[in-house]
Amino acid sequence: MNQPLDDAALDQLFREARTYNGYHDKPVTVEQLHAIWDLMKMGPTSANMLPARMVWCHSQEAKQRLADCAGEGNKDKIVKAPAAVVIGMDQNFHEYLPELFPHTDAKSWFDEDPEGRVEGAMRNSSLQGAYFILAARAIGLDTGPMSGFDNTAADNAFFGDQPNVKSNFISTLGYGDPSTIFDRSPRPDFDKFNTII
Amino acid sequence: MNQPLDDAALDQLFREARTYNGYHDKPVTVEQLHAIWDLMKMGPTSANMLPARMVWCHSQEAKQRLADCAGEGNKDKIVKAPAAVVIGMDQNFHEYLPELFPHTDAKSWFDEDPEGRVEGAMRNSSLQGAYFILAARAIGLDTGPMSGFDNTAADNAFFGDQPNVKSNFISTLGYGDPSTIFDRSPRPDFDKFNTII
């Protein structure tokens, strides 16, 4: 049985971690992007469907392309960040299930269920988006996840050749600059949104 | 700037962690449920909307009530687990935004946008579901997340008095018994579902 992680790890993952608006001038490497994937891919998804499709914007041109899809308040954050990412979701993820979930015919559960695929892609790529955030923190990076962008524009800009893939959310990535954050928004006590029965 | 967590922590959170079908006969305490919430609530959600509504099934009666909503293969896992949880999502989360995101009028973004609320609740309660999984692992517990249940039955059984709250997914919780898991499903290399531009 596992023991609780130490306080420093819990602080780094959850308690002291923040959503950053700006980053130190220190690059994010390709090796770090691979390290994030190698952790986040281990997180559970329903039937191991792994619907997330990650487009890492590492070049200035790619960050600019993403910024062009973002809301006014977010453009500058993206072009100035060391890296950014589009978390896409493949609504035809079921095509991969014979490979990803080989011990049963899970593809057949979804073949005739396009609505179930849309819902499964959304739920499970969001789980993977959270795994991305925590995996980045676990390797010492910080993130700035955002929903403030034009999904249709991002779909066209990044998944134009894959109409089955839609953008879910986006994030910046780097070593967070504490001078770019505000006070943390309130986090409610257990009793507000939890019930034990 | 943070350093990467040590290998033992990365193993516990991602690499060695598994979805369990059964658990050791060791209780999950109310204090642990609070500890999970106190970590998971720190994870980011869009505009700090925190739409997840957690119903922790700690009593045998509550686990049975959840099992009655579950698919055949999942009922036994639920009644035998030390605890289970329903991760619900409040599609009227915007009512809380004046309190949770006090520095701007975020409630008005959603007042006339019921579709945006449904989507925001799904995306962000799924993020919180992933934070739940990783927070549980971080305090030394294991989980068994599942989508195999009747959402309408669960909505009626657990949120019958709150038509604005819908079930997202469910999970068991405890100290995982390694004899109850199978080989891990394949996890693809970076190049399969990632692009760097």
Automatic annotation (TrEMBL), chains A, B:
Keyword annotations of the record: Flavoprotein, FMN, NADP, Oxidoreductase
Source organism of this protein record: Parasphingorhabdus cellanae
Keyword Iron attached: no
One GO MF term attached to the UniProt entry: 3-hydroxypropionate dehydrogenase (NADP+) activity
Lineage: Bacteria, Pseudomonadati, Pseudomonadota, Alphaproteobacteria, Sphingomonadales
Cited InterPro entries: Nitroreductase, Nitroreductase-like, Nitroreductase_HadB/RutE, RutE-like
Xref: Pfam families: Nitroreductase
Entry EC number(s): 1.1.1.298
First-tier enzyme category under EC: oxidoreductase
Protein name from the UniProt record: Malonic semialdehyde reductase
UniProt keyword Oxidoreductase present: yes
Domain Nitroreductase: 18-153
